[in-house]
């Protein structure tokens, strides 16, 4: 049997600005979240990483090189 979460707004003090807030989850209030998205938010982009090349001091497994 699944238990449903209580999604009614909670009354608490915003941890960022200190004003009263009524939100579904604890955290920054709506105004602070909007300000954070405007200040810090950005567009995601892919980062290219160079292919892995083992260091020169890495030797092959002795069993694999056995003749």
Chain-wise SSE layout:
Layout: E1 10-13, E2 20-23, H1 30-40
Antiparallel strand pairs: 1-2
Polypeptide structure, described:
The chain is α+β, with helices and mostly antiparallel strands and 67 residues long. It has a domain at 10-40. Helices cover 16% and strands 12% of the residues. It has a two-stranded antiparallel ribbon with strand order 1-2. The longest helix has 11 residues, at 30-40. The radius of gyration is 26 Å and the shape is elongated. The mean pLDDT is 84.
| Class from secondary-structure proportions | alpha+beta
Note the gap between the termini. 62 Å
Q: Helix tally?
A: 1
Rg from Cα: 26 Å
Q: What integer is the average pLDDT? A: 84
Oligomer: single chain
User: Could you describe the largest sheet, including whether it forms a barrel?
Assistant: 2 strands, antiparallel
Q: Pick out the low-confidence regions.
A: none
Shape: elongated
Percent of residues in beta strands: 5-15%
Fraction of residues in helix? 10-25%
Helix and strand pattern: EEH
Going across the biggest sheet, name each strand in turn: 1-2
The total beta strand count reads: 2
Q: What brief labels describe this structure?
A:
single chain, about 70 residues, alpha+beta, 1 helix, about 15% helix, about 10% strand
Kindly summarize this structure in a few lines.
By secondary structure, the chain is α+β, with helices and mostly antiparallel strands. It is about 15% helix and about 10% strand.
């Amino acid at each position: 049997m699944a238990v449903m979460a209580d999604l009614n707004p909670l009354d608490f003090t915003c941890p960022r600005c200190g004003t009263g807030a009524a939100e579904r989850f604890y955290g920054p209030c709506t105004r602070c979240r909007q300000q954070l998205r405007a200040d810090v938010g950005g567009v995601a982009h892919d980062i290219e990483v160079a292919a892995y090349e083992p260091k020169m001091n890495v030797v092959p497994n002795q069993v694999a090189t056995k003749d």
